[in-house]
Write a sequence for this structure.
């Protein structure tokens, strides 16, 4: 039979493992949740909230693997928010950066935009 402190240590390690996955979502889960809320905010013209979430997602996406497509998508989506707000001088460099990032990923045009014949 195990000593009582061994059971306690096992219980604590299992508890920490299970709850840490639920309490602290991964960066990928956070990015996805931010993306969904930002899209909903944009649809109802809450651009300040959408901008804040897109900027947070940009920082997250910069930590993802180099070939991850979420960075150019996030940059493009942020440009869309700026365009909707009429901040064209802020939007243009982001559109250009998103396009260049897609080129660097060898994914231009992005799959969601049909290519021209």
């Amino acid at each position: 039979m195990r000593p009582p402190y061994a059971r306690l240590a096992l219980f604590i390690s299992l508890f920490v493992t299970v709850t840490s996955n639920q309490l602290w979502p991964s960066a990928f889960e956070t990015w996805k949740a931010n993306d969904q809320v930002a899209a909903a905010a944009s649809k109802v013209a809450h651009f300040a909230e959408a901008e804040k979430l897109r900027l947070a997602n940009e920082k997250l996406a910069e930590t993802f693997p180099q070939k991850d497509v979420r960075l150019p998508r996030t940059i493009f989506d942020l440009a869309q928010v700026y365009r909707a707000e009429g901040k064209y001088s802020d939007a243009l460099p982001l559109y250009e950066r998103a396009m260049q990032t897609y080129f660097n990923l060898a994914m231009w045009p992005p799959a969601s935009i049909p290519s021209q014949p």
